[in-house]
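During the second year of the project, the team shifted from modelling isolated chains to modelling whole assemblies. The rationale, set out in the original proposal, was that interfaces cannot be judged from single-chain predictions alone. As a representative example for this report, we include one of the complexes processed in the last quarter. Its constituent sequences, exactly as entered into the pipeline, are reproduced here:
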Amino acid sequence: MQEYIIELSKYYIVFFMVLYTLTCFFALWCKKEQRLHVLYLTQNALMVLVQISCFLNLALVSKDIQYLFFFGFVQIFLLAAVMLVTMIYEKANRLLLNNMCMLLGIGLCIISRLSFHHAIRQYVIVLVSFIISLVIPYLLSRIRFLKKLTWVYAAVGITLLSAVLILGEVTHGSKISFSVAGVSFQPSEFVKIIFLFFLAAALWEDVSFLRVALTASLAGIQVIVLVVSKDLGSALIFFVGFVLVVFVATRNYLYLLAGILGGGIAAAVSYRLFDHVRTRVLAWRDPWSYIDAQGYQITQSLFALGSGSWFGMGLLKGNPKSIPYVYVDAVFSAVCEEMGVLFGICLILICIGNFLVIMNIALRIHDRFYQMIVYGIGIMYIFQIFLTVGGGIKFIPLTGVTLPFISYGGSSCMTTMIMFFIIQGIYMRLRQMEEAQENKRRGKNGKSRENRENRENEESKQA
Amino acid sequence: MERAEKTEKTEKTKNQNRPEDKTGSRSGVKGLKRPGPRGNRWEIIGTAAVFVVLFLGMIGYLGYFVATNEQDMVNNSYNSRQQILLSQNYRGSIFSRDGEVLARTVLDGEQNETREYPYGKLFAHIVGYSTQGRMGVEALSNYYLINTSTSLNNKVANDVAGVKNPGDNVYTTLDVKLQQVADEQLSVYRGAVIVTEVSTGRILAMVSHPDFDPNEIGEIWDSLVENKDSSVLLNRATQGLYPPGSTFKIVTALEYYREHPDTYENYSFQCNGHFSMGDSRINCYHGANHGSVNYVTSFAKSCNSSFANIGVNLDADSFEETLEELLFNGELPLTLSYNRSSVEVAEDSSVNDVMQTSIGQGRTQITPMHLNMITCAIANDGLLMRPYVVDRVENDAGNVVKSFKPSGYGRLMSSEEAELLAGLMEAVVQQGTGSRLKGADYTAAGKTGSAEYNDTKGDSHAWFTGFAPVEEPQVCVTIIVEGAGSGGDYAVPIARRLFDAYFAEKQEALE
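Output from the structure prediction step:
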């Protein structure tokens, strides 16, 4: 019996995953409250099904019962998270919440397959991150001076990043982390949030040239510090976030053009200046000629993808540990190898789903400050996924950043979760406002024309 | 919650009031567009759309990569997962087209595996080996051989019993009888023989000498690798680079026709055994004096002097184009590992080089397989079929897992050109150097070659490439016998035996 379960599991895991992805996009499109509720519950059920299938498979193949215990803990957490958030914040975005839990579950599953020890650590990290994140929406609604801290954000960001540059530990040739009391932190992850608050605070009411220039120089310092720390992936994410936020805040295409040109020049310069940049590009263009050295990681990653093929080799049936840094950089390839490329594609699609939800929220926000924060988070989130997935499949050069919610690592997980809960907080405000407006309009139903004029007035004033 | 709502409202009213005057003055002074509440709608949608498109591109790339590279990835020797597959499945068998075992894995009582090749040396290069690296079909179908498509019930039963699953079996297009004839005929000579089916591109036989016994590959490996002189491991049929000699006149003749489509029939040349231009001189084979020759007889008698005369008047650019169309200096549509043929034609080539090239000497090099493909295209109306050796893959129960169909690569030449060249090659048999094929039960066409590889001694490789029957070509053979002498004397008889065997087998099948 159990051999049948093991053999067939790769097909039904993919099947559940595809179904989940479909519900995710259907929920994006669907407007009916009633139907959405059913969809969200279906998603939770599918999430549990994927989890049961994966962990049961792990336990059967390894003949190790600990996976089932771990499964229990993971399920309790995921379901409790969904219930807690919806109870405390009834206006929270369920789709974003469900997707987050889905991704966290997949992440914990693949990490536990790679190393049980790492998985337990990651579980604790997820738990702590969740508890911290849970208060974020509440804090957002209480703290009123967020818009005024422009220069404080910049100062904190520059200080933290510089501190890493000077004091940080060297891992794989780049300075990205330091340890406090045995726990290693990656400040560049947390600074992402502060960086976005800085941009939003700097640009929400004043987009004069001087203002943009000042913002650009302060943002530029942070990007340069990251480049000097050889944290290329983060530098790129900061840069792209900065250019696009400035563009959307100013609506000035010249800034976008300048950003693209500047980025191109900076890329060319760093290609000439830095050896490690050239190595990455070389390994991307022709990994097969350097299969023993520079191309080793990318070719091993490609082997994983090719060997996994559409339905995967099955959990514990492949050899994902042959890929260097599989826990962090190459976790997507590990997922594809054992759970299949179809599963991997669904994973990417769920991330795109998250991005679309975030962009949709950004479109609805009137307050430019919060709009920029939401928009910036969305861009950084999706661009980071582009870097890590694209790097692992040789679509672009490898930069070594994490896959949010899936990769092993506390700073990344906590930062992304805080970002998602910031969006939740802003989204709740938005819904309250929208509902208030709706009620007002209904109240003045008779004088609808006047009402519309009023609203238009209001909107223009608000700007 | 209520309090939160209140702060919300106060902040909102603040927002409404505060920026009002500022916005007004700023937009006036700086001339910037006033950012309305939804003013940046299209910027957000636009940038989001860019990312969505980027991701769709990435997903497409990933899908394409997996669809096209899966086998290469599994086969790469740096991929540790092969060991995983081999620890679960034992290697499948390789069969000839009529079901004879060419390679199989034998299990002893303790489940130890040995790879066995029942025909020994006969299929050494084309079936290959799998333990010291891989070669031939063993390399080509490695992916199928180490994967299993056995039924789920069998997998479960094997799992319970603690034995490995049988890998999938590969059925080739190889014909044992033809392979034996080719091997016998090549005898002690070094060289290669290829037999292919014209209309499909199926490789029926492929022999390369010297050979080795793949059953003993482990023991003899070191000595084979050390002995660079004889390069036993080289599959001469696809990897051996030889001067094409007079077989190259097929190409020169085609180019002459292309440059003189209306007047080629009027060509004539008075051969007195050599042709000179400036300091350069070309001799006919063994100084033969061919007398007055035209386009057809120049080809049939393989007159070097006449072809040197044709060569020096050809247009280099046009010639280069023709060579490119015939897949020289480029990739071949071939899955077996091969070497690229090379030929040099340029505007500034010396007269000597041009004369040498046009009779297939000089720096020109070709693999027998490439010549075979050109010949097949001529026999097949100008259309080249991709040569292939793996016909289908079956699981242990005989269900077909994957089958490979004949597929056209494209035109190497027009239908008229193919017809013309076929006519020339028929004349070779009827009135020229291929006369040893005359008088058979079938009609044959081809071109001989005696490629000189040693300038001082005049030693030559014997070539023949051709097809039969002329009316409706079915089979195509290409033969090279190293250092034997003239193609007409040493290669053509082998072709005859191969044709005989092919048609005899066909006849048997009918009866």
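DSSP finds 20 helices and 19 strands in chain B. Chain B touches chain A through 60 residues (CB under 8 Å).
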